[in-house]
Write a structure and sequence with these properties.
Residues 35-82 form the Double zinc ribbon domain. Belongs to the ComF/GntX family. It comes from Cohaesibacter marisflavi. Residues 212-270 form the Phosphoribosyltransferase domain. This protein is α/β, with parallel strands linked by helices and 272 residues long. It is built from ten helices and seven strands. α1 crosses α2 (12-38). Mean pLDDT is 83; it is low at 1-20. The chain binds zinc ion. Residues 43, 45-46, 48, 56-57, 59-60 line the site of zinc ion (ZN).
Length: 272
């Protein structure tokens, strides 16, 4: 066998290397199978044992409230009825937002909420891969510019220290890797801690995040005319995202897009 490999590859080193590669793959597969026996992969929604890691069981998949067309071409909010050619919602026409386009994977229903919760608080940082890939698909029309900068909504450093990671940065990194675009995790900074937005009125929310963000950029880099894709896990009230967009606008960013994993439906009081 060794002789045969030697003659085929023209050298012992090459043949051994190749042999190791041939053996390596099944070993890797076997290793994964053993790992799956010890720690079987669980549904990211309900915890039921599933075949593939980072996937949902059939029931949770069916329960995800995926956002699909028809939706507003600006805000990405699904229309409850088909508006035909009028693809911009009346809300957006009445109050033009600070961003150009926003897209989300799903409404913040039971399954999406559990996924976000596990990513954020249950150490399931591995979920960022599948969630980020879904975000690439949902936000495809925000990701057409190869020079775009992918930026997460930042946490204040005190909260970052407590949680150890920024879930939005994990998602943004996957999006940048999948699309080959630039990931700038520190472009936006939170200059002061802010209260949780839940339970605040619209005005209170705006005041809460006003002046809470700043751009952190060296003198050599300019945002002028650059497409910026802002990434967050959940779109709740939109006040935080709006504050980030305003800071980016002031720095002359070109197109500003927002991609979130989930979006709280208008009028919903679903807690995070
Ligand atoms: Zn499930």
């Amino acid at each position: 066998m060794l002789k045969f490999l030697q003659s085929e590859q023209g050298g012992l080193d090459g043949s051994l290397l190749n042999g190791a590669r041939l053996i390596g793959r099944p070993l890797l597969r076997a290793g994964r199978a053993v790992q799956d026996l010890i720690i079987p992969p669980r549904c990211a929604g309900c915890g039921k044992i599933v075949q593939d890691a980072n996937s949902l069981c059939g029931a949770c998949w069916g329960e995800m409230e995926w956002i699909a067309r028809p939706y507003c071409s600006v805000s990405g909010v699904p229309f409850s009825y088909d508006l035909g050619e009028a693809l911009v919602s009346p809300d957006v026409l009445a109050n033009p937002p600070a961003y150009d386009r926003a897209r989300s994977v799903a409404l913040f229903g039971r399954t999406a909420r559990r996924m976000v919760h596990q990513l954020k608080y249950m150490d399931r940082t591995d979920l960022a891969i599948v969630m980020g890939r879904w975000m690439v698909r949902a936000g495809a029309d925000c990701l057409t510019d190869p020079d775009a900068i992918i930026v997460p909504v930042p946490l204040h450093k005190r909260r970052l220290w407590r949680r150890r990671f920024n879930q939005s940065a994990l998602l943004a990194k996957v999006i940048a890797q999948e699309t080959g675009t630039v990931f700038m995790p520190d472009l936006l900074q939170r200059t002061r801690p802010t209260r949780q937005q839940v339970g605040l009125s619209e005005d209170e929310r705006r005041v809460n995040v006003e002046g809470a963000f700043q751009i952190n950029l060296d003198d050599k880099t300019s945002l002028s005319g650059r497409t910026v894709v802002l990434v967050d896990d959940v779109w709740t009230t939109g006040a935080t995202l709006d504050a980030c967009c305003r800071v980016l606008r002031r720095s002359n960013a070109g197109e500003i897009c927002i991609i979130t994993f989930a979006r709280v439906a208008a009028g919903s009081e679903m807690p995070i």
